[in-house]
Amino acid sequence: MNKIVIIGSGGAGKSTLARKLGEKLNIQVYHLDALFWKPNWVSVPREEQIKVQNELVKKEKWIIDGNYNATMEIRLSAADTIIFLDIPRNICLFRAVKRTFQYRDRKRPDMGEGCNEKFSFEFYKWIWEYPIKRRPKVLEKLNELSKDKKIIILRSNKEIERFLEKL
């Protein structure tokens, strides 16, 4: 495991797992949210997202967490390991709401400067719809990639903890 992608719904724990995995394996972690949001929640243009990711995946080792479906193929193609956090939506939604209060009006560790945590109905709606709108496509893609890549699907905190302990 040298080139690792971590994907999953908002609130699934991607950034937390990325940090823990990075520490354990001594691999640099790149949080796409921190790279692709400028101050005051201004999104980086897709062309820049593509350029940044094409540069990141050239590195010998990396962990990249985040979805960004429009550019996901760049990361998935370059990765040797893909970790999908398939966490139940009620847990993801609870974590996202909790995070909103925990970091209210300040930046989370995995976010870009000037992107203070805020209530976002659109984000909660995206989490709620993830199992129906996004998850089937992700599972289909992972099935396609399973011949060439190591695919790890983790469905609970216990599975995540066991995965980290076994490394």
Description of the molecule:
- The structure is a single chain.
- The chain has one domain: Rossmann fold, CATH 3.40.50.300.
- Helices cover 50% and strands 16% of the residues.
- The chain has a 5-stranded parallel β-sheet, with helices on both faces. A two-stranded antiparallel sheet has the order 3-4.
- The model has no long low-confidence stretch (mean pLDDT 95).
- It is globular and about 40 Å long.
- It is an alpha/beta fold and 167 residues long.
- It has helices at residues 14-25, 32-36, 46-56, 72-78, 89-102, 121-133, 135-145, 157-166, and strands spanning 3-8, 29-31, 37-38, 42-43, 62-65, 81-85, 150-154.
- The N and C termini lie close together (10 Å).
- Helix 5 (89-102) runs antiparallel to helix 6 (121-133).
- The protein has 8 helices and 7 strands; from the N terminus they run E-H-E-H-E-E-H-E-H-E-H-H-H-E-H.
Helices, by number, come to: 8
* Residue windows where pLDDT falls under 50 for at least 5 positions: none
What is the share of helical residues? 40-55%
Shape descriptor reads: globular
Q: Roughly what fraction of the amino acids lie in strands?
A: 15-25%
CATH first level: Alpha Beta
**What is the name of the CATH superfamily?**
P-loop containing nucleotide triphosphate hydrolases
Q: Determine the CATH topology.
A: Rossmann fold
Q: Give a count of the beta strands, DSSP E runs of length 2 or more.
A: 7
User: Could you say which structural class the secondary elements and strand pairing correspond to?
Assistant: alpha/beta
> What is the radius of gyration?
15 Å
Write out the strand line-up for the largest beta sheet, numbering strands in chain order: 2-5-1-6-7
Largest sheet: 5 strands, parallel
What's the SSE pattern?
EHEHEEHEHEHHHEH
- Tell me the CATH architecture: 3-Layer(aba) Sandwich
What is the residue-mean pLDDT, rounded to a whole number? 95
| Distance between the amino and carboxyl termini | 10 Å
Tally of domains: 1
